[in-house]
């Protein structure tokens, strides 16, 4: 897992804790850059999780073996966090004209620059739409005014673009999805908005901006009546077929079916603060994680294995978001940081090894941290009444379960501090221990 984590960091610009309205989108570039790059965009509207979850899986779980792919999974990040279509108005209606004082201006201009980039040949925008689109009225949920489960084009063809036959490509994608639908009601249909003929709303959209700039553009809609993981499943079916049209080859880390998509969405998320000094492995975390060592008067720098992760400062702590969900809240305790090297020797289940701080180690029965001069060890949840807990073999039964960072009571923090005579401790770093068993005492005070 750590190898994937480090590789992913190469792709993601370092983030800082900000006010929510300063969040910026991520751009993940995959494969080998060429002039046939496919640009996939999720999250232009913050209340459409199927789209932004599918795009995040594309960014994290897919490996491009041939061709070039750019992914923006969180275009309207603040609205994703707020579970709002668009807290500053509908961003997908700002691609014709946008006011200079519009808070969305930076994001809109940024994505426009990507669309018109000389390397981009195809643009795909992911949406979740209401009901199920049908070309004639069937009932309230299935009719021409609905958008869900449809392949969207602005016009049938675009002469001079890389992929001129927009209708033919969309029909190919539609047929592929329909061969893999979960229920007949989910059948996809083609929706041509014929934007240039006067659709006032679509004239302002992202895909039509691409069309005006001679870039082949499509939108994929999944129905809001479906659970998020099924929406993401349909989006991924569409994405994969568009990639095949463009000759982009890929591998993914799971077999494509709704259950595997759900598991991938719920996959453990890793977050590191301050260059791996503090590390969190968030798998069903507690609502609050207390006493997090943070340097005073320093912007909270972080990285994550998932681009939908954001840390937002809020009421004496930092709320960790994953898309539109709150994972946990970090409650800080302020320390100066040490510059001592970031590794430690431990004995896990009787085996001596050296590990890096900012990592997680799996342990069956017990762990011991080997002592070092001027370094004290604090095993969070182990009540030894000793200031330094190094050179002590600690069994799983010795640690108070409620001090775990996860609700199952398996994952615990071990922290190291530089200790010098007459000076306050400095935080060196920490690592996590995940015990195999769950029979830990369930008393004590929540950390």
From TrEMBL:
Residues 343-435 form the Metallo-carboxypeptidase C-terminal domain. Coiled coil: none annotated. GO terms for molecular function: purine-nucleoside phosphorylase activity. SUPFAM superfamilies: Zn-dependent exopeptidases (SSF53187). InterPro entries: Beta-barrel_M99, Metallo_peptidase_C, Peptidase_M99. Residues 280-335 form the Carboxypeptidase M99 beta-barrel domain. Pfam families: Peptidase_M99, Peptidase_M99_C, Peptidase_M99_m. Its EC number is 2.4.2.1. Residues 36-265 form the D,L-carboxypeptidase peptidase domain. This is Purine nucleoside phosphorylase. It comes from Campylobacter hyointestinalis subsp. hyointestinalis.
């Amino acid at each position: 897992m750590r190898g994937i984590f480090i590789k992913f960091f190469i792709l993601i610009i370092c983030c800082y804790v900000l006010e929510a309205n300063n969040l910026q989108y991520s751009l993940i570039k995959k494969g080998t850059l060429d002039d046939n790059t496919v640009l996939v965009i999720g999250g232009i509207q913050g209340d459409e999780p199927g789209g932004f979850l599918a795009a995040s899986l594309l960014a994290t779980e897919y490996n491009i073996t041939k061709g070039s792919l750019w992914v923006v999974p969180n275009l309207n990040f603040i609205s994703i966090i707020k579970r709002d279509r668009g807290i500053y108005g509908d961003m997908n209606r700002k691609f014709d004209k946008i006011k200079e004082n519009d808070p969305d201006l930076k994001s809109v201009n940024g994505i426009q620059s990507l669309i018109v980039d000389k390397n981009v040949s195809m643009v795909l925008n992911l949406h979740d739409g209401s009901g199920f689109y049908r070309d004639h009225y069937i009932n309230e949920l299935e009719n021409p005014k609905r958008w869900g489960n449809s392949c969207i084009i602005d016009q049938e063809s675009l002469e001079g673009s890389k992929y001129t036959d927009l209708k033919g490509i969309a029909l190919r994608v539609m047929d592929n999805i329909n061969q893999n639908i979960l229920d007949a009601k989910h059948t996809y249909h083609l929706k041509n908005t014929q934007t240039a003929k006067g659709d006032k709303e679509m004239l302002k959209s992202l895909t039509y901006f691409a069309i005006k700039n001679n870039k082949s553009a499509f939108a994929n809609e999944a129905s809001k009546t479906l659970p998020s993981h099924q929406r993401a499943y349909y989006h991924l079916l569409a994405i994969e077929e568009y990639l095949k049209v463009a000759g982009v080859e890929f591998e993914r880390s799971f077999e494509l079916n709704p259950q595997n998509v759900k598991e991938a969405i719920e996959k453990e998320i890793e977050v590191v603060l301050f260059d791996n000094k503090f590390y969190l492995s968030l798998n069903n975390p507690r609502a609050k994680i207390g006493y997090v060592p943070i340097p005073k008067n320093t912007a909270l720098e972080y990285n994550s294995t998932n681009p939908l992760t954001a840390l937002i400062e809020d009421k004496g702590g930092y709320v960790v978001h994953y898309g539109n969900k709150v994972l946990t809240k970090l409650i800080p305790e302020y320390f100066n940081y040490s510059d001592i090297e970031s590794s430690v020797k431990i004995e896990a289940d009787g085996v001596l090894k050296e590990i890096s701080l900012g990592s997680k180690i799996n342990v069956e029965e017990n762990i011991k941290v080997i002592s070092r001069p001027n370094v004290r060890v604090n095993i969070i949840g182990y009540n030894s009444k000793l200031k330094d807990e190094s050179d002590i073999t600690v069994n799983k039964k010795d640690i108070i379960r409620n001090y775990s960072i996860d609700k199952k009571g398996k994952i615990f923090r071990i922290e190291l501090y530089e200790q010098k005579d007459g000076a306050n401790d400095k935080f060196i770093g920490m690592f996590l221990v995940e015990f195999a068993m769950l029979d830990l005492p369930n008393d004590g005070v929540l950390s």
